[in-house]
Write a structure and sequence with these properties.
heterodimer, A: about 1150 residues, alpha/beta, Immunoglobulin-like, 7 domains, seven-stranded mixed β-sheet, B: about 400 residues, alpha+beta, Beta-galactosidase, Chain A, domain 5, 2 domains, nine-stranded antiparallel β-sheet
């Protein structure tokens, strides 16, 4: 109850925070909260306790799994605990008391309270002020307790005050050393053991935590009033003899009805609870029969109606002859389809009926497969196939059994195991990635919490720890970080990217280092985050590579000379315009833009080639390797987006316009995402999350698993999700229930609207008068917003696609050219052909006034298409304009050089035509002779409706191509500031309505025809209708499914109907007459117990899709219910099987 | 000294008691946290290529909103002992990023020279607690020692400010410039606004450039007719209030983007008190009503309150001397803290303030630093003695 009160107090404090001392303080309370919200396996050593509760103030490093020690203590003992964290400041090498001055004030406030014990876990008092130290030590001298773990303090723990004869509660183990400190007590314990992941690691931790609890209770003066001992005689037993364990006790029993309990267990082995007995006033003995060989503890408690009176634990060892000498795997990893094989070693003399069983177990202890043979001394070979349904970590366990009745062995003599990893990459599904992995003794609990809270991938430098396999999490190795350090001579360090020998030696060594990662299963291979994505140097290697690049680009030297204005006679002469000018800044300054641009383009190309060297090395060890980089690369910062996407295996930039290009041109299986986690409130975080979903990402990447301070990790220090994370998990649950995977199987629509990404234009917009027209990126963003605000969608195409003949002209009705100032002749011809063939082009200012190398042109390459003539290049004329009758805009950035030839002009600004429409062949071209970015945004309230009408008229071609759906406000006006994204799933459309920021609003959605509408957030069927209401909630995307027919009940079958344990049943789902694919969340129960091993998303349509139901040998028999919940309707379909 | 502080505090508490408090539960305290100074290299492309920039931010947590005060400047050695504010040096990054400008909202000019190019001598949170919180920024400028003292009070949703000037040379002019972006960064977002300034005597509109007496324009609400929370746009208005000297002048020049206010004070001004509001999330109408309703009360508070920090007001030199004597009597303290004891003795011998006079800007800055050291020293002694007794 006291914990409940403490928790309620904390919640109240947080809720009332705005009215209390400080918002920062409220956040500190959230950060420091030690809740029991994420329980883990533990022994209730003294919980509930017959003695007093103990109030503990914990001081520890707030990072990683250190703080969790407080929760582990609270779980096991009647402890009320608050924490004070020492922490590293984010993005800084500095450390401080978490919260800085506010944190220190919080500490002082806590030190004003009464504490029974101060626990210094891994940190001492070195970083405390004299006041803080005094306020710890003064209460100790007056009777409180002090426990140091892994640290000490000679000023406090004086030799003269050390207790030579440890009290029994500390002597057992032993726990550590003890002192008196005035009237108080102190204990110094060694640092916690480093416990890796293995079978039963948590049991070993449980005994260490028990020692910590004893130290705390003794130091606090709250040790049990009674004592007890367990006598296990010689402490060594043969496995099959009767073991006598004798309990004796002394001291005072506080409560009524005292009883004695005994438990025998070993790490990774059985835990045997013996029958509880009324406590006798004398010693008495329990008898334990056969036990498998191993190291055990006998744990005993005296429990009364008041709680645990006292407890003890005594180790003993069980040995056997024969015994299992080990399991030797031929390989400790394998891909699906490979085999798990090896030898089990039996030592000694097995009995005539003894058997050897080699079994494959999952993390949960389920026996997935087994091979049993008569036991014989020596080696016994075994072999299993690796099945697709197998978990990523399989325990290959060899056990000797005696007197097996039938197939069910009775008594285990001895066993040994080895782990085998099953390589899984987790591709083709919607993932959630976390930066970094937990470390420290409690890391597996943190990992489990991550796995239970949606994490499926983790990224870190190095190879993955074994626990990731245990929790089925695939790996993203952060193998390097490509940067461009250079010597004083301008040579890249440690080697030139084009020094083939050095590069090969480097990447191959790197690949060797990462072989364990490859064996684990790599989702993608990362070349780092925040990397430098362009680069070259002044080495001869780079010079040669540059010449090679230029030869490939220009073909012949004359073309290069013509472009650069040079007169080279041999390619060997080609190089930088000025020695040491790696960037060709000289050419830029002189106005030789082609020579400058080519160097910039080379630097992007050069980076990509360097990435490819890594990719090839990783592919050599991992044939399915996908290599790329993350958190770097931008839309208009010199990166050739098309080239990066073509050449890399994945790319996860920070959120930006590059995402639009990736979603448009990358193959669907090209992994892409954004990093997020850089704010702390749920709304702003959800806006990032949903933007990723609506931009076609296949994962969400979060920095990082733990963090307090400037950002928040996915998990709080006590390993629960932070409150904002809990809200994110709730809001996005339907993504994990199938939407995420279903979108990967659906096609994002584009309404026949293409937008051109032109790499040279990113540079052309930066020269001469270009910047005066705004940035290249702002023009694109403006067109994105115009298209989206009007309810349309679009897709990028690129200049390279046009050069390579990949532009599918038939697919599009409209091509938008935002600030496409630089264009090659091939691309220009493709555009001409597109319009001549009936397409429509809309451009804003200055189309194709430079060539594909940024060389100024006398006449725009597309002037004929637009029906205009330009009289040279000039600065933007910014001022009032009247683009249409009755519409005056205060400030448009206009190109004053344009005159009309064959086009028809509308509107003018100081005599300059603003909108020119020109028929060209069977199509038309529209020039907005002003920057799209200077047009008032359509999404905001004060932009006149006429502006939207004008743009709708242009994009919709006078109503010929209306938006697929219209969104209205309560007043019937066009709903502003809304993104409508549609995906096609067969004949089904999935629609998202997303407002990234703004106010909540109810929208009326008007469809061209009635459809069955399903609200995916609620599962509500809104009926067959052409009009429905949708609540637009800022930062949170709404999703709807539009179907022609009501969602039909799926056919869910499992064959056979009565599968035997140890077999794999086959389930299938299909939807008769399905119009497209449906997502099903499949779960299972055995009776009332949920089976967490069967929890997956299945995507199925009219054709049955099968999935495995692997029944373990040790699963319970009986009726199993398998349920498939359909995403759109949230309808459950269940079937039962009778497991034999 | 202590008595004066008690009286002033009681007066403050009484004032607070009669003031309506925005929170139902009444005033509960003010938090103040001062973050560490953070340095970063500026971009190689700007006016200060690769120069070192320093910024330090303090956060006042009032009952309704948190105000943040920042000091920032380019502190690169290239400036040879001076610092160069990039856009300003006293910024208000919160409650909202708009309104009082995060990178410089307050400029102090003496003899036509801005003190912002003088390195900051100290930025200290000198008081924090249930009654109030005080932040001091001190400059040792060649013309004067200047202190900008910001004060947060429970129950008040504005931040009070006292500028103290301790002349070093003859001061011939004193000026303040205020800069705000009411409610919204219009031009940055390519939006047009309609800036307005309401004072007790006039409404100033965007594009106007008017000068008036400070006495008739002693408070001002800066708002935007387009970006009004009532219309679902913008952060809300901001306001200022000044205790006007007899012949001060104020000039309002609300542009379409930044809104500047220039205040000319008498040359002999040594103290000026102001209040700043960021009405984050408040409609124009509510902010106008709130300021006009509470202006007299806030002005009275500014005129009467003693802003001497509690550590200074409560400092008892006799007690400090006794503490040092006690430490000297302790063998353990003498042994462990010999150096500190010596420093304390030297300070106490030299530090006796003139009776009945408040310390000047520089003296108070020194005193606050010394009191801080002294307070640590007291705990050092207590700790040493405690450990010795073990």
């Amino acid at each position: 109850m006291s914990r409940l009160i403490a928790t309620l107090t904390m919640i109240a404090l947080i809720a009332a925070a705005p009215c209390l001392l400080a918002q920062d303080r409220a956040e500190l309370e959230v950060d420091h909260a030690m809740t029991l919200d994420y329980p883990t396996p533990h022994t209730d050593w003294a919980q509930p306790y017959a003695g007093e509760p103990t109030r503990v103030l914990l001081f520890c490093d707030g990072r990683g799994t250190n703080p969790r020690v407080g929760v582990e203590l609270m779980q096991r003992f009647d402890v009320e605990l608050e924490a004070v964290f020492w922490a590293r400041i984010v993005d800084s090498p500095d450390t401080h008391w978490h919260g800085g001055e506010v944190g220190e004030q919080r500490m002082l406030d806590l030190l004003e309270q009464d504490w029974d014990c101060f626990l210094f876990y891994g940190i001492g008092m070195d970083n405390m002020s004299s006041e803080q130290q005094y306020k710890v030590l003064k209460p100790v001298t007056e009777g409180a307790g002090l426990v140091f773990v892994g640290v000490g303090d000679d000023r406090v723990l004086k030799d003269a005050n050390q207790i030579a004869d440890l009290p029994p509660i500390l002597a057992r183990g032993p726990v550590g050393e003890a002192w008196t400190v005035g009237q108080g007590r102190a204990v110094r314990m060694p640092w916690r053991p480093e416990i890796d992941y293995y079978e039963g690691w948590e049991v070993d931790y449980d005994y260490w935590a028990e020692q910590l609890g004893r130290a705390v209770l003794w130091a606090a003066g709250h040790e049990p009033q009674a004592t007890m001992t367990l006598d296990v005689g010689p402490a060594h037993f043969d496995w099959n003899v009767t073991k006598n364990i004798t309990l004796d006790h002394a001291g005072t029993i506080v409560g009524d009805n005292p009883r004695a309990r005994l438990r025998v267990r070993r790490a990774g082995g059985p835990s045997i609870d013996l029958q509880e007995r009324p406590l006798q006033p004398r010693a008495f003995t329990w008898q334990v029969g056969s036990l498998p060989a191993g190291d055990y503890h006998a744990d005993a408690w005296i429990v009364s109606d008041a709680g645990v009176e006292t407890w003890t634990s005594t180790p003993f060892t069980v040995t056997s002859d024969p015994r299992v000498g080990g399991v030797l795997l031929d390989s400790d990893w394998g891909e699906v389809g490979d085999r798990i094989s090896g030898r089990a070693i039996v030592e000694g003399a097995p009995g005539p009926d003894d058997r050897l069983r080699v079994g494959l177990f999952d993390r949960r202890g389920r026996l997935l497969a087994q091979q049993t043979t008569p036991a014989a001394a020596g080696e016994t070979r075994f072999q299993f196939g690796i099945e697709p349904w197998m978990p990523m970590l399989v325990r290959v366990d060899a056990a000797l059994f005696r007197n097996p009745p039938g197939d069910e062995p009775a008594s285990v003599i001895d066993s040994a195991y080895a782990y085998c990893r099953v390589t899984q990459r987790h591709r083709g599904r919607f993932n959630f990635l976390i930066w970094d992995t937990p470390s420290g003794t409690l890391a597996p609990y943190a990992e489990q919490s991550l796995a239970e809270h949606s994490v499926t991938l983790q990224l870190k430098s190095g190879n993955p720890p074994l626990m990731l396999s245990a929790f089925d999490i695939a790996w993203v190795p952060y193998t390097t970080r490509i940067m461009t350090p250079k010597t004083e001579d301008g040579i890249m360090e440690p080697f030139c990217w084009n020094d083939e020998a050095a590069v090969q030696a480097h990447v191959q060594a790197k690949a060797e280092d990462y072989i364990p990662a490859r064996q684990h299963g790599v989702f993608v291979w990362s070349l780092g985050d925040e990397v430098t994505t362009t680069g070259s140097c002044l080495s001869p290697y780079c010079a040669e590579a540059y010449r090679g690049y230029l030869q490939e680009v220009y073909g012949d030297l004359d073309a290069l000379n013509a472009s650069w204005g040079t007169d080279f006679t041999d390619w060997a002469q080609v190089g930088l315009s000025r020695e040491g000018d790696n960037e060709e800044a000289n050419s830029l300054a002189e106005g030789n833009y082609p020579r400058w641009f080519d160097r910039q383009a080379f630097q992007s190309w050069n980076f990509v080639q360097f990435c490819r060297a890594y990719a090839e090395a990783y592919s050599a060890i991992d044939p399915l390797a996908r290599t790329g980089f993350e958190g770097a690369g931008r839309f208009s910062a010199g990166d050739d987006l098309d080239l990066i996407i073509r050449s890399n295996g994945f790319w996860s930039p920070y959120p930006g316009v590059a995402d639009e290009v990736i979603r448009s041109i990358a193959p669907r299986d090209f992994p892409r995402s954004n990093w997020m986690g850089y704010t702390k409130d749920a709304d702003s975080l959800l806006a990032k999350y949903w933007r990723m979903v609506t931009r076609g990402c296949d994962a969400v990447w979060w920095w990082r698993w733990d963090c307090i301070g400037r950002f928040h990790g996915w998990l709080a220090p006590d390993l629960r999700p932070f409150p904002a994370v809990a809200e994110i998990l709730e809001d996005t649950q339907f993504v994990r229930d199938g939407l995420g995977d279903l979108l990967l199987h659906s096609e994002m629509l584009d309404d026949g609207i293409a937008m051109l990404y032109s790499y040279p234009s990113t540079f052309a917009c930066e020269v001469e008068d270009g910047p005066g027209y705004g940035s290249y990126e702002s023009a694109h963003v403006a067109f994105h917003n115009i298209v989206r605000d009007l309810g349309y969608q679009f897709r990028y195409v690129t200049d390279r696609m046009m050069r390579l003949g990949e532009f599918e002209a038939d697919r599009y009705r409209l091509l938008i050219l935002p600030r496409i100032e630089a264009l090659g002749p091939e691309e220009a011809q493709v555009i001409r052909d597109f319009v001549a063939g009936g397409g429509v082009v809309i451009a804003d200012v200055r189309p194709a006034i430079y060539d594909g190398h940024c060389k100024p042109l006398a006449q725009g390459l597309l002037d004929e298409v637009f029906g205009i003539s330009t009289s040279g290049r000039a600065a933007a004329a910014v001022g009032p304009a009247e683009p249409a009758d009755g519409m005056t805009l205060e400030s448009l950035a206009v190109d004053p050089t344009v005159t009309v030839t064959t086009g028809v002009a509308r509107g003018e600004a100081d005599g300059v035509p603003l909108i020119i429409t020109n028929r060209f062949g069977d199509g038309a071209a529209v020039l907005l002779n002003f920057t799209a970015a200077s047009l008032p945004p359509l999404g905001v309230a004060d932009t006149p409706a006429a502006v939207a009408d004008l743009m709708l008229d242009l994009i919709g071609r006078a109503g010929e191509h209306p938006p697929a759906m219209r969104l209205r406000t309560a007043d019937g006006d066009r709903l502003r500031n809304i993104e409508v994204t549609r995906w096609q799933d067969g004949d089904i459309q999935i629609v998202s309505l997303f407002r990234q920021s703004g106010s909540r609003e109810t929208a009326t959605v008007v469809l061209p025809a009635a459809r069955h509408v399903y609200d995916l957030r609620t599962g509500e069927h809104l009926g067959e209708t052409a009009r429905f209401q949708a609540e637009v909630v800022p930062c949170r995307a709404g999703f709807f499914a539009l179907t022609g027919l009501p969602v039909a009940t799926p056919d869910l079958r499992v064959e056979p109907a009565s599968p035997a344990r140890g077999t794999v049943a086959t389930a299938s789902i299909s939807v008769a007459g399905a119009e497209g694919l449906h997502a099903f969340k499949v779960t299972a129960r055995a009776g009332d117990a949920p089976l967490d091993w069967l929890d997956q998303v299945v995507i199925a349509g009219a054709e049955p899709v099968e999935f495995a139901v692997p029944l373990a040998y040790n699963d319970p028999a009986g009726e199993y219910t398998i349920t498939a919940r359909e995403l759109f309707s949230r309808g459950d379909t269940s079937t039962t099987v009778n497991v034999q | 000294m202590l008595g004066r502080y008690v009286v002033a505090t009681l007066a403050l508490i009484m004032l607070m008691a009669v003031c309506p408090c925005p929170a139902d539960d009444g005033p509960t305290g003010v938090g103040l946290s001062l973050g560490p100074a953070k340095e970063r290299r500026l971009s190689p492309d700007g006016d200060h290529p690769n120069h070192m920039h320093r910024e330090q931010v303090a956060t006042f947590s009032l009952s309704e909103r948190s105000y943040r005060i920042a000091w920032k400047a380019c502190v690169d050695p290239a400036h040879e002992g001076r610092v160069v504010p990039i856009e300003g040096y006293i910024g208000m990054p919160g409650p909202s990023s708009a309104n009082w400008y995060h990178s410089g909202f307050l400029f102090i000019r003496l003899n036509g020279h801005d003190i912002g190019t003088t390195p900051l001598s100290s930025m200290m949170a000198v008081e924090s607690g249930p009654e109030r919180a005080i932040l001091d920024l001190v400059w040792r400028d060649e013309a004067a020692n200047v202190r900008a003292r910001f004060v947060g009070l429970p129950g008040y949703d504005c931040l009070l400010c006292e500028i103290a000037i301790e002349p070093v040379t003859e001061i011939t002019s004193v000026g303040l410039e205020l800069r705000c972006y009411p409610s919204y960064f219009t031009a940055w977002n390519r939006r047009d606004g309609a800036r307005r300034i309401q004072t007790p005597s006039r409404l100033v509109e965007q594009g106007d450039d008017v000068t008036g007496s400070l006495a008739e324009n002693w408070w001002a609400v800066y708002y935007d007719d387009i970006f009004d929370v009532a219309k679902g746009e913008g952060a809300g208005p901001c306001s200022m209030l000044i205790v006007p000297p007899e012949d001060g002048e104020i000039r309002f020049a609300p542009g379409g983007y930044a809104v500047t206010t220039n205040i000319t004070l008498p040359a002999d001004t040594t103290r000026v008190r102001m209040a700043f509001w960021d009405h984050n999330g408040v409609t124009n109408a509510d902010a106008l009503a709130e300021v006009s309703r509470r202006a007299d009360e806030v002005r009275a508070l500014l005129e009467d309150a003693d802003f001497t920090p509690a550590p200074v007001a409560g400092f008892d030199i006799a007690e400090a001397r006794a503490e040092v004597q006690r430490a000297l009597a302790s063998e353990a303290a003498r042994e462990a803290l010999a150096e500190q004891i010596g420093q304390m003795q030297a300070w106490l011998e030299a530090a006796e303030p003139a009776r009945g006079e408040a310390p000047g800007v520089a003296a108070e800055e020194e005193l606050l630093r010394s009191i801080d050291i002294y307070n640590s020293f007291k705990w050092d002694v207590k700790l040493v003695e405690l450990l010795h007794e073990l």
